[in-house]
Each structure stands twice: as structure tokens, then as C-alpha cells.
Amino acid sequence: MIDADALKCAAAERAVALVEDGMVLGLGTGSTAAFAVAALGRRMAEEGIKVVAIPTSEATAAQARSLDIPLVDFTTHRSIDLTIDGADAVDLDGFALIKGLGGALLREKIVASASKRMAVIVDTSKTAGVLGSRTPVPVEIVGFGWQSTQRRIEALGAEAVLRLAADGTPRITDGGNPILDCHFGPIAEPAALAERRKGLVGVIETGLFIGLATDIIIAGTEGVQLISRS
Ligand code: A5P
User: Exposure of 213 by Cβ count < 10 A (0-12 exposed, 13-18 middle, 19+ buried)?
Assistant: First the structure.
């Protein structure tokens, strides 16, 4: 049986090997990104490299603080040298991603958009099939009138489901907004779909990441592969 955590850890460690002394880093969110934050903390402690980092969620910020990784923000830093983040689904042909099942898509996209390089760490399960065939696209929306936004998205051909927390109330992001998980099925043209939904009133951001990933690091039973965008 494949140990999913071992694969996540292997991809994370390969990405953290890209970190150089003095870099400004973007730290992603999710279980795979958490392995990267842990590996970064180890490298800093063992090798004495110094970096500063911008986290994409309160959870990642807390983990980074616990490892003494210095955190900064966009007040003092205009751009990020390298962001390391996970993904929910990856299209290897177009380097398009679905992100946000962990709820941090808005901050993740802001950080990715400010990054010179974005290394996406996944196991092989995330690269299987056509984008959207296994994973809904999370869309962060304004809470006011969310039902109206939901209907507008559904008019584009998706089933848009309000994400709920364990207690049955709407799941609210770090930014204070609800999320619709939008089931479109296989997405033939991710860039066109991202544009159409981004333009809808009430939509803050979508979990379709187009043109942001520069490197995909995939861990599988055969080893770890790094594919860079040409
Ligand atoms: C967080 O909002 C997401 O974009 C995560 O990066 C994504 O869900 C991957 O998470 P896992 O590494 O836990 O699968």
C-alpha cells in the first residue's frame, strides 16, 4: 500500500531543496504544504539558512511561528522569490491547477500572483484525469446574497454547493467569506472558465489557478519528478 504521507513528504522535501539563503518565500496551505513548512524549519535549524516568508493562511502562519520561521507581509516585500504550495488537481499539459479544498484559495492566489516561481507539490493522485473530473472548483464569494451568486454560477452549467463546517454552519475562510464548491465536470478550457466566473457579481476569487505554477513536483511510487514550465 502506498503511504500518502510519505509521498507528500517526498514532494515537499524536493521543493524545499529549491530554497536558497536570503529568499522571500510564500508558504502554502494544506497537508502537503505543511510537510514543506516542517522541512523548511528543519533546513533552517540544521543548515542555518535564513529566509522570510509570507503565509497563505492563519494555520500556516501558526505552524511557521512554531518553527521560528520569520513572517513578513506585503508592506515590506513587493515580490516573493519562491512559493511552495499543494494543489487539489493539476493539469500537466497547461500547468493549470484547482486549489482551495482547504479553503485558503484567495490568499494562496494573492501570494502565487506575487511570486517569481511557484512550485506545486502533489502526489500522483492529483494529476490523474481531466481537470475538474474528480474535484469541484472552490469559489470564494461574498456572503451577502450568496444564493443569488450561487444561481448565477449554476447558470454557467455547474452544481454550486455551499461548503459547510462540521457543525452544519457555512464554512468561513480566513478572509471571512463563504465558499461554493462548483461541480462542472471535466473542464476543457480552464482559462476561459476562470475568466467567466471571475467576472460574476459576488464572486471574489476562483480556485482555478492559470499561468501561476512554474514547477510541478510529483511524488509517486517510482520516485519524485520535477516538471518545469517551458
Ligand atoms: C488549500 O486551500 C488548498 O489549496 C490546498 O493547497 C489543497 O487543498 C491541497 O491540500 P492537501 O495538500 O491537503 O491535499
Answer: buried
Angle 31-160-197 from CA coordinates, rounded to 5° = 90
**Percentage of the residues of the chain whose pLDDT score is greater than 90:** 90
108 tagged catalytic: yes
pLDDT tens readout for residues 121-155: 999 999 988 999 999 999 999 999 999 999 999 99
Q: Is the CB of 123 under 6 A from ligand 1?
A: no
Q: How far is residue 183's CA from residue 212's CA, in Å, rounded to a whole number?
A: 22
* Predicted TM-score (pTM) above 0.85: yes
The answer to whether 215 and 19 have CB atoms below 8 angstroms apart is no
Strands 215-220 and 118-123, sheet pairing: parallel
Q: Kindly report the protein residue whose alpha carbon is nearest to atom 1 of ligand 1.
A: 102
pLDDT (tens digit per residue) in 163-192: 999 999 999 999 999 999 999 999 988 888
Q: Read off the C-alpha cell for 93.
A: 499539459
Please give the distance of CA 93 from its chain centroid, rounded to a whole number.
Answer: 18
CA distance 13 to 16: 5
Q: Write down the catalytic residue from 13, 108, 140, 205.
A: 108
Query: How far is Cα 163 from Cα 166, in angstroms, rounded to an integer?
Result: 10
Backbone angles phi, psi at 5, to 5 degrees: -65, -35
The residue type found at 198 is K
